[in-house]
Amino acid sequence: MSPVKKLRFDPLNIVVCGIGGQGNVLAAEVLGSAMTDRGYQVAVGETYGASQRGGSVMSHVRVSAGKSLSVLIPSGEAHMIVGFEPLETLRIARKYASSRTTIVYDPRPVYPLGVLQGSLTYPSMEAITEELRALSSMAWAVPAADIAMEAGDSKAANIALLGAFSQLPGAPLTREDLERILTQRFKGAVLELNQRAFAMGCEAAGKEEKR
Question: Domain tally for the chain?
Fold first, then answer.
């Protein structure tokens, strides 16, 4: 299938980041599958923190209309960032974002053990939001975890955030592109759940765009 949307940048560099166990690796795989299905050249790679569950997890997704790509995105050259945890999104944005970057992220924090024990301080959401906006051309906060709970299962937060991603200006995929991949990856009740979460993520992004 030939690409139907012209890439704003070629290669287009997307970072998907979060904490181990949030499903961000699956989200990156779904993005990669959808873009491969659309005829793009795609390279996907992951890096992990100290522990797979609870540590930092980042996926590099690079997309081109025809170029062969290396996996890793150079510093300062992410065009889009999909973040599943706000402080982790900020950490990645500090290294990879620029004035050309658009960001969509879940503003619900996942507190590290040191914060829970009182030995570390988690920044305020106001400070995180302000810096993300300063580091990028646009930063949308979409409550993916809350949306997933409303849809029926907190594990669907990654799919809700993909719905929001599809509404970003310059997104390389349409809503229909991603919906088609969901029907390939999931079946039965799990598919129905993910379809609800995805649609709600799209709707939430539309509300964020109008602010």
Answer: 1
Q: Does residue 181 fall inside a structural domain?
A: yes
188, part of any domain: yes
Non-local CB neighbours of 63 within 8 Å, separated by 6+ positions: 7, 10, 11, 12, 13, 14, 35, 40, 41, 42, 69, 172
CATH number, position 163:
3.40.920.10
Locate all alpha helices (DSSP H) within 38-174, ordered by sequence.
86-96, 113-117, 125-135, 144-151, 157-166
Which structural domain range is residue 163 located in? 12-209
pTM, rounded to two decimals: 0.91
Q: Confirm if 208 and 140 have CB atoms less than 8 A apart.
A: yes
Task: pLDDT tens for the chain, 211 residues: list them.
Answer: 544 567 889 999 999 999 887 888 899 999 999 999 989 999 998 776 544 456 788 999 999 998 888 889 999 999 999 999 999 999 999 999 999 999 999 999 998 888 888 888 899 999 999 999 999 999 999 999 999 999 999 999 999 999 999 999 889 898 999 999 999 999 999 999 999 999 999 999 877 665 5
Edge-first strand order for the sheet with 102-105 is: 41-48, 56-64, 12-19, 80-83, 102-105, 138-141
SS3 74: coil
Report if residue 6 sits inside a domain.
Answer: no
Domain membership flag for residue 1: no
Contact 23/3 with Cβ under 8 angstroms? no
**Among the listed residues 84, 76, 74, the one whose alpha carbon sits nearest the alpha carbon of residue 28:** 84
